[in-house]
Amino acid sequence: MNYSRLQSSRREFLTTSASGLGGIALGSMLNDDGILNAKTANDPSTFRNLNTHDEAKAKACIFIFMAGAPSQLDLFDPKPKLNELDGQKLPKELTEKARFAFIQPDSATVMGSPRTWKKHGESGMEFSDLLPHIGTVADDLIQIRSMHSEEFNHHPGQLVMQCGVSRFGMPTMGSWLNYGLGSPSRNLPGYVVLTAGRGSSGGSTLWQSGFLPSKYSGVPFRNQGEPILNLENPKGLSSELQRAGLDALKDLNDRKYQEIHDPEIASRIANYELANRMQTAAPELVDLSDEPQHILDLYGVGRKEPEGNFRGSLPGLQTYDTFARNCLLARRMVERGVRFINIVHASWDQHSNLDKELQYNATAVDQPIAGLIKDLKQRGMLDSTMVVWGSEFGRTPLGENRRGRGGVTGRDHHPFAYSMLMAGGGLKGGLTYGQSDEIGWNIAENPVHANDLHATMLHQFGLDHLKLTYRFQGRDFRLTDVGGKVITDWIA
C-alpha cells in the first residue's frame, strides 16, 4: 500500500472538508446577518455591493487624523476661566490621581490662552481665530467637546482612535469597513493612506489590517510622482510579458491555495491583480492637471511654506502644499470608489512654543479641510461621504513644567476631555455635542469614547458594530471591542 499517498489523501480530505464545512457555517452566519448572499459568494476576490445590517447613509469616509494631539483649548473649546486662573495651582484632588507624560503636578500651574473666539454660522459654533476657514462650514459640522480616552501616551492613544483598543496587531477602522462592505473600486484599493508633516509616532500600525486578510490593509499613496513606490514596470518589461508573468504566478498561487486553503494566498493573488490595474488608475488619480484653477485655489494647492522651523514639518517637506493636495486627492478617491481614506498629519505635540507651532499647524490644515467640505457639498457628495477630524487626545489646562526646561510655553497630553469634528455621511450639521467643565479638565456632559464614535460611524455605513465580527484565536473580535454605543443624537 502506498502510505504516502494515503497520508496525502487524508490530509487533503481533512483540509478541504474543514474548509468546506467552515465555509458553509460562515456563509450561513453571514447570510443570517445579511452580509453575504449568492451574488457576493460568486465573487471571491472581493466583497462588493454587500447587503448591510441597516440602511446605509454613508458610502465613503475621509478620516483626517491630527497625530500628536491638537490643543482643544486653543482651537475648539473656549475656557475664559483659564485666563482668570492663569498662573494658579489647581486643587490637589484634580491632579493627584492624574497621569502625565511630563508635567510635575506639585508645581504645575494653569496656563491661559491668548486666542480670540468667534461664533460662526446659524448654529453659533465657536472656533478660535486660528480656524477662520473651518468656521465658514460650521453649519455642516458636529463639534464634539466630550471625547475621552484611557491612554495618555501617543502610540497607545493613536491605536485606540484607529483600532478601538491600544493593543498591537488589531485591524483599523478602514480595514473593518472594507472587510464588512468591500470596495466599490476595481482599480484602486478600498483603503488608502495619505501623509503630511514629519510622521506620526504610530507609523504603519495606524493603517494595519491586523488579523484580517492583508488585502484589507491601508495602502500608502504619495501625492506626486509615482503614487506607490515600485508600481511602475522596470524599463524593458512590456505589458504582455508582465501579464504572462502574472498569469503564471496566479496559477502557482491557485494551486497552493487549493492545497492548503490559506486566505493570505487569496489576498496575495488579489493584491498582484490590483497592483496591475493600479498602474493605469493611480497615476491618473494623482495628476491634478484636469482640476480647474478655482478648485486648486479652494483647497490651497500651491501655497508657500512659511519660513522657519516648525514641529509640524521638516525642511523640504512643503507640508502646506502636501496637505492641500491630500485633501483634494481624497475627494478624487471618493469619486473613484475608494471606501476609506486616512489623511495623517503630524505632529501636533506642542509641549513648548505652543502659540507659534499651533498657528503653523492650524493654518496648514484650516483652508484645505474647509475646501474639502465645500467641494464635497457642491458636488452633492457630502451626504454620502463622512469627514472626520480627530486625534488621540487633547492638551492639558496646565502649562508644561518639564524638568530641565525654562519657562512654560506648551501643554502636556490630556486624555480626560478633548474635541473632534465630523461632517456628512447622514450626520447632523451645526451641532455642538458634549461639554467639558469650566477649565476643560473633565467632561461635564455626554462623554464620548472612541468606541462610541466607531459604533456610530459603522451605523451610518449600515453596519451593526455588535454583528461585524471576525473570529481569531477562538474569540469573535470587533472594532468596538467590549464597549461602544451608537449616539443617535448625531444622526440627521
Descriptive account of the structure:
The chain has 492 residues and is of the alpha/beta class. It has one domain (56-230, 287-490): Alkaline Phosphatase, subunit A, CATH 3.40.720.10. The protein has helices at 3-32, 38-41, 80-84, 92-95, 132-135, 154-163, 173-181, 239-260, 263-286, 293-299, 319-335, 354-378, 450-460, and strands at 60-67, 117-120, 125-128, 141-148, 191-197, 219-220, 340-346, 385-390, 394-399, 411-414, 418-423, 431-433, 435-436, 443-445, 448-449, 470-472, 475-477. Helix 8 (239-260) runs antiparallel to helix 9 and helix 11 runs parallel beside helix 12. It is globular. Mean pLDDT is 86; it is low at 1-49.
How large is the share of residues in beta strands? Answer: 15-25%
Oligomer: single chain
Q: Could you give the count of β-strands?
A: 17
Low-confidence stretches: 1-49
Compute the average pLDDT: 86
Can you write the helix and strand succession as a string?
HHEHHEEHEHHEEHHHHEHEEEEEEEEHEE
Q: What characterizes the major β-sheet?
A: 9 strands, mixed
Radius of gyration: 24 Å
**CATH level 1 class label:** Alpha Beta
**Level of helix content?**
25-40%
Q: How far is it from the N-terminal to the C-terminal residue, by CA?
A: 71 Å
Per the CATH scheme, the topology name is Alkaline Phosphatase, subunit A
Task: Report the total helices.
Answer: 13
Which structural class should the secondary elements be placed in?
A: alpha/beta
Overall shape: it is: globular
In the CATH hierarchy, what is the architecture at level 2?
Answer: 3-Layer(aba) Sandwich
Integer tally of domains: 1
CATH superfamily: Alkaline Phosphatase, subunit A
